Amino acid sequence: MKPIAILLILVATSAFAAELGDESNLKFAFYSSAWGENTDDGLRLVVKNQSNLDVVLEEVRFIKSPEDADDDIIISVELSVPAGRYADAEFSYTELLSDNECIRRTMENNWRLAEISTYTLNPSVRNLIIENTDSFRIYQCVETISTRWRETTAKSREVVKTEEGWILYHFETRQD
Hints:
Elements: H1 2-21, E1 26-31, E2 43-49, E3 55-63, E4 73-81, E5 86-91, H2 101-108, E6 112-117, E7 136-151, E8 160-174
Antiparallel strand pairs: 1-2, 1-6, 2-5, 3-4, 3-7, 6-8, 7-8
């Protein structure tokens, strides 16, 4: 019985690793000073193109309800991102925090939204020096998104791709 269980675990682990290998070549994050503050600051988007092709990020769709596309929040981006490079853009503020129980509950508990991104947030990546780890916490909520982009090489100018994936809402707090 144990050899079968170990075999099943190995198969499941390799399938999961294969899925991770299929991650998108576009990584991005939204930021806003308006989150948790009474400001009219907009949204800032930073995109990293990890592919070897220039692309235009056309749209990011936050899927709020799989049953009703009318609930989706669509951000029309139209941002050129060179191969292997970063690009950024500024947008007017769009409410991205609605219709998600995890986000609502977390905001009510006085957590601060740091960013919304397609990658896992690690304090060391953001060069945060945390002297007292007992007083610092990170919490994440997940949501489904759809991303649409097109390649901009001469051979593939008309190639438009859409990919469904996840985006993480990264919250942080310091406890007194």
